[in-house]
Fold this sequence. Notes:
Layout: H1 4-12, E1 14-18, E2 24-28, E3 32-39, H2 43-60, E4 63-70, H3 77-84, E5 90-95, H4 101-111, E6 116-119, H5 130-139, E7 144-149, H6 157-170, E8 182-189, H7 190-197, H8 206-213, E9 217-222, H9 236-250, H10 253-283, H11 290-323, E10 330-334
Parallel strand pairs: 3-4, 3-6, 4-5, 7-9
Antiparallel strand pairs: 1-2, 5-10, 6-8, 7-8
Amino acid sequence: MTTQPAMAAHADRMRETHSTTGHARLSRTLHALSCIVPCYNEAENLQRLLPLLQAQLAQVAERWEIVLVDDGSTDASAQFMAQWAQQDGVRVVQLSRNFGKEAALTAGLQAAAGDVVMMMDADMQHPLSLIETFVRHWCAGADVVYAVREHRDGESWFKRIGSGWFYGVVNRNSRFRVPPNAGDFRLMDRTVVQALLAMPERNRFMKGLYAWVGFEAVAVPYLPEQRAHGHSHFSKFQLFRLALDGLFAFTLWPLRTVIFLGCLMALAAFAYGAYLTGVYLVFGHQVSGWTTIVVSLMLFSGIQLVSLGVVGEYVGRIYEEAKRRPIFVVKRALGQGLRGES
């Protein structure tokens, strides 16, 4: 819930000016910026990222903080973060185990105290030079500024085809649109962050949530840089699982596909029955072979099992939400960040 002081602070940093034509234009002054960096076994990358990120944030904001979220790392990330937590402007949130990137981002959003919140990965693929561009668009009135890949030429055919199929299905006949090729590298106003935190769902697909809350958004094209160290922690199976999470969380297409398939098979069965009736009336009764019966039984059994699995996915997610378990568990929090300032 937004408090009166927070609303007053938000209104204070928004100034309305007028152009020469007399039309109002919204401009803002950035006072405090939070940067969330979810980490899972990123010790080597953090050694390069944090000094550069500190310098960049100091150029665009008077007051800033870096919120490092340790998502159950098994390397030296926790020790490295603990050392950085002793510096001003750095806060560390260490989760009790690996809860996944969506949960780590949510933990960072809850910990961030800035008027504007930015999120980026720790693998050095997100260009730090875009931070100034993000801030400039926010000052001009945008509530959300997000980076969009210009192309996916360097990725495998599996990711290119899968990504195109996923966004095509999710955005089909939807009241909101999930921007293709957009990730978690974005900057958001405090009002957007509060809207995201107000949603109590446990199965969180952040890309869909960003689009669902709405607000005025600006896309900034970019090309990701090479990963500094290590490799991506998302396997093909995990990417496929993430795509399913998005489909089941924001669309009813799996259920509608089952309904369509059921109607199609019913029409096919009716047509085949009419054909057999016609053959009987014209040529007389013929004993059907076992092949048709066995193949038909296997086909319909497979369709029934797939249909039951689709319904089970939705029921399972309802069960997970009904248990109301926390999205994540914090093991310990280090540093102060903006909350420690007087």
